[in-house]
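Lay summary. Proteins are chains of building blocks that fold into shapes, and those shapes determine what they do. In this project we predict the shape from the chain. Here is one chain we studied, written as its sequence of building blocks.
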Amino acid sequence: MRRVFFILLICFFLITIHVMAHASGYGIFTQGARALGRADASIASLDSPSAIFFNPALLTDLEGTQGEFGTTLIFPDRSYAGATNAETEDSLFYPTTLYLSHELNDDVTFGLGVFNPFGLGTDWPDNWEGRYLATRSEIVTYDIRPVVAWQASDRLSLSFGIDYVYLEAELERMIDFTGFGPLNPDGHQLFSGDGDGFGYNLGLQLNFSESISLGLFYRSEVDIDVDATSNFSVPAAFSALFPTTRAHTELTLPQQIFVGLAYQISPELLVEASVRWEGWSTFDQLRIDLDQPVAGSTVEIQPRNWDDTFAYSIGGEYQLNASTTLLAGYLYGENSVPDATFEPAIPDSDSHLFCIGATHQIDKIQLTASYGFQHQLDRTKNNAIAPPPSPQASSVNGKYESDLHLLGFSVGYKF
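And here is the predicted shape, written in a compact code that computers can read:
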């Protein structure tokens, strides 16, 4: 019954996402158009129900009952230059969010958010040079987050919430059989599975004065046991060595800490600086256990050894008139993938994000639109990560380039 209820809720509220954006690893932070316009400098000050994602302690500033629905259109452009050249398939991704807040009384506010905190999507051509490492990689997560915020004093607000996370994953690659005969066609592997887990979150907002405020937010790790199936399509002579089998792995979604400091410079101008830390160092390897042996083995271990990361942003708002507010921001984000395990399924790199946007109030409706350009620094793969040995196997060492265009939209309503 829990799964049936969850699937119905997701079908009603969300559209599937398959991309990572202005994040390290496969975290996703396109969780509200207003925050996107400020490059996510929204931890100490955000007059929006999307504070449920960035810092639910800010909900005590919202009056009555409010809702917000939004999405971000993401246009990625990734390419590879090595022994040959390749580009990922043209794609449009759209992480979607729903937030609801309700002021129970002067001190307590409840909130509910449904969003996608982590995701990954790369889609390389089936005939590209690195097809034996990766062709299509997707990780999709859905987070249902109920929260409660408490106005502890005139200056201090606190929040507590639960995260229920459901994860789906699909990983595809080709298998090289030419080492056993040049006329053998490529094989194909599809790993697909799902799992879920629980975590918690804590928030704080402290107003030092009417113009200066501090925001802190912590989200715990979420451990997810993934039950999957590994399907193979291979030449008939090798079918006994590559049976379709059940598979199992564990993924830990990292803990995150957000810190923001906001300054209301004037009645019209607000500026915030924020820092985000993500604990990706827990991802030291990907271990897949198989119920049946594949090519003689029941275990596949892929080293990762990822690093913890920081992201730094500054952004703000300018109240142009009674109904329109302008947004702008900049973010610099570190990547979590070290040179030794960098590979094309997750071509992560340090990035610069430049954002602008605007909100417009029409009676009880607030419309927001934002644009972000994310430039990921060029990354060169020069390591031993490669598919199983064969005369045609390639480590796909070369230069990887990536840029993303992001268009965020949201509609808010005060009931």
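What the prediction tells us: The CA atoms of residues 212 and 349 lie 34 Å apart.
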